Amino acid sequence: MTSVTPDRALAVDTRPPGPVTTPDPQTAQTPRWLLEGEMAMCPCGCVGRRKKGSFVEKTLDGSAGLLRHVMFGQDVAQSPGFLQRVDPRVKLVSLLLLLVAAAVVRHISVLLTAYVLTLLVARASAVPVGFFVKRVWLFVPIFTGIVVIPATFSFITPGEIVVPLWTWNGQQVGITAQGLQAAGLIVSRVALSISLVVLLTITTPWVELLSALRALHVPRMFVLVVGMAYRYIFLLLGSVTDMYESRRARQVGAEKHDGASRAFVSSTAGALLSKSHQLSEEVHMAMVARGFRGDAKTLSGFDLRRADYVFLAVVVTVSAVIVLGDHLLGL
Amino acid sequence: MHIPDGYLSPATCAVGFAVAVPTIIVASQRVQRTVKVRNVPTLAVLAAVAFLVMMFNVPIPDGTTAHAVGAVLIAILLGPWAAVIAVSVALLFQALLFGDGGVLAYGVNVTNMAIIMPFVGYAVYKAIAARTPLTSGRRVVAAGIGGYVGINAAAFAAAVELGIQPTLFHAADGTPLYSPYHLAQTIPAMMLAHLTVAGFVEAAICAGTVAYLQRANVPLLQVNHPGVPLTAQDARPSARRRVRPWHVAVAVVGLMVVLTPLGLLAPGGAFGEDAPGDLNLSGLGLRSVPEGLARWNGFWHSALFQGYDYGNDPHPWVGYMVSALVGIAVVGASVLLLVWVVNRVARKPRTDEEQTVNVAHESKTSAS
After folding, report:
1. Which of A185, B191, B235, B332 is most buried, judging by how many CB atoms fall within 10 Å of its CB?
2. Which of A160, A185, A267 sits opposite B212 (nearest CB)?
């Protein structure tokens, strides 16, 4: 233990006593208090619990949630697992292939079988299955499901009525077989698509994902902008948190949701824009001082191994089997 | 408004990418020309801001909060092309990091929120702000209305994309394969939410931020408004910008193209356009179709798009859209040709003799 660096020693100390066979990725680096609370923060506010809270609290919660989400993802991406060993380029191509396959499938059974496969892959890739299932089923498809339920009625999706409910103007209204089929189809397809995207992004460090984009001939400038933007999100997030925390520190009592608070939010946005404009000037000067002339060079450290080719072949086969199996089941 | 994967058919997603990718390429070239080598840090920081602005909770009167998109705001401050790049990158983060908005649907989401929204909103802002000084209140109002119109245009586009799915893509027994709602349901649902709440949230953010920058950081406003006077005192009397008929014509035709899908919603037919078989003869006190009507109806049988459709294709909507596009092109070309001929005829005598100048001038003004 003498050669252990301090942070490594800290990580060892925080583990519970007793034999630890598989390292729990959740506690490997990120503190537990940061990981508790609401999962699946959605910046657009359309998913998850919609609680009535002050806009200051919610923005602060949102920024903490963003950090939590990113740190948890990085922890999983660095823990040993099946998908972590696959080349990111191969993973990205596989994701696109499988997404297209999922999009053309017309049978719920095929989609559900593929979903079970993603669960197995998640299990093999050190993704906590509980988290994975919750991330996919508890938030997004349930939301989708609620949206889709009205579509099962005969006035949205006409067809063969299986559950007659009432008659209206002499016409029977009820749940149609076609409506149920459509609802099941869309829920399972959304679930499968989201599982696939989560699997890719949670097992790949962001930097490698960007290099994979570059390898797929996404323009270099775009990748460079994306990479730098990712870095500045966290810097600017610090400014936003500072502004909101100082606002909360000055405030006694509950926030009012009136014009003054809206003026505060838009002033915050204005201040953020001013700061970022100044920041971009400084960053530009610093980059030019270090020899930046508008061209980007990336280190290409990827080599496709045999295992990667095997993985790609398996994915192509699976996509083909999904599409062909769907055709064999008939239209 | 972030459309997830699974709601749209692969064909729709492909169309989305076909629109989004060239626009992003043009946008990066345009931005590169204007800000040159500085574009990388500027765009990177802007994209980070665009992402963070989408996280801001805007308080609304019922005690809850809502989010803004901020595309119009960035378009006002740094031009619509910069907004295209910044919002596209922010949407990429949301799709890949948070599963908010799909990966296959990325092109469609970019089209709605990073292309339609900033351009429509910016055009409205420019039209209302006109040539008022930079610190005038009219620019604040213009920014608010621009934000309101911009987000509603994006929502309308999303509603149309979702609404055409069940008609274009369904199984043999009528089961919708993708989003199950028709245009008649998606348009009211999306527009109700955006016309009443989300539009005003966007307007508040746009107007409030422009008002704040007018007080606190005018140089940032000047970035995208070169040559615009600061205050009313600085304003020099300048020649009014002429409205060019060409621009107005393109704008009106563009608006009509955007509204074309509404024709699919219209029920029934127009008065006087029925086929003879559809006439309510007994209601008119007639026993048979009048002789002249029967003889001359169907005189022209060789229309290219009979009944706004070609052949018996399985997707009548595609035929409707194709006929609409061909119709626009043909009418536009005929009008251009006509105006060109009128101009040629009107210009000719001017060089000949003095006495015809007056006539030529009259006919020219009437032509334009």
Report:
1. A185
2. A267
Partners of residue A70 in chain B, C-beta under 8 Å: 97
Taking the C-alpha atoms of residue B66 and residue B270, their distance in angstroms, rounded to an integer, is 43
Question: What are the structure tokens assigned to A35, written together?
Answer: 């990981």
Judge whether B3 and B179 are in contact, CB under 8 Å: no
d(CA A331, CA B188): 32
From residue B359, give the alpha-carbon distance in Å to each of B228, B340, B353.
41, 18, 11
CA–CA dist A191, A145 (Å, integer): 10
Q: Span B185-205, mean pLDDT?
A: 83
End-to-end CA distance of chain B: 42
- The per-residue pLDDT for B153 is 92
- From B70, B25, B34, B80, select the one nearest B49 (Cα to Cα): B70
Higher pLDDT, B368 or A244: A244
ipTM above 0.85, yes or no: no
- Calpha distance B207→B210 (Å, rounded): 5
Q: Which element (helix H / strand E) includes B254? A: helix B245-259
Of A157, A222, A236, the CB nearest to B48: A236
Query: Nearest CA of chain B to the CA of A134: how many Å?
Result: 13
Q: How far B111 CA lies from chain A's nearest CA (Å)?
A: 17
Tell me the per-residue pLDDT of A224-264, one tens digit each, with 9 for 90 and over. Answer: 888 888 888 888 888 888 888 888 888 777 777 777 888 88
State the residue for tokens 């001359």: B296
Residue recorded with tokens 């749209």: B8
**How long is chain B?**
368
Q: Closest Cα to residue B155, out of B113, B196, B184, B124? A: B113
How far is it, in rounded angstroms, from Cα B74 to Cα B83? 5
Mutation target to probe the B interface, by most B beta carbons within 10 A, among A68, A115, A262 is A262
CA dist A207 and A59 (Å) reads 27
Provide φ and ψ at B157, rounded to 5°: -60, -45
Instruction: Give the pLDDT score at A295.
Output: 66
Query: Helices marked H in chain A — which ranges?
Result: 6-13, 25-28, 32-35, 55-78, 88-104, 108-124, 129-133, 140-148, 177-202, 206-215, 220-250, 259-289, 306-328
A314-330: average pLDDT:
81
CB A288 within 8 A of CB B37: yes
Q: Treating both helix axes as pointing N-terminal to C-terminal, what angle do A220-250 and B39-53 enclose, rounded to 10 degrees?
A: 50
Choosing among B32, B51, B65, which should be mutated to test the A contact, i.e. which has the most A CBs within 10 A? Answer: B65
Distance from the A166 Cα atom to the nearest Cα atom in chain B, whole angstroms:
21
DSSP string for residues in A174-211: EEEHHHHHHHHHHHHHHHHHHHHHHHHHHSS-HHHHHH
- Helix (H), strand (E) counts: chain B: 15, 2
Question: Considering only CB atoms, which chain A residues are within 8 Å of B176?
Answer: 151, 157, 178, 182
Q: Is a pLDDT exceeding 60 seen at residue A163?
A: yes
Q: Average model confidence (pLDDT) for chain A? A: 74
Picking from B49, B48, B44, the residue whose alpha carbon sits closest to that of residue B31 is B44
Distance from C-alpha of A2 to C-alpha of A5, rounded to nearest angstrom = 8
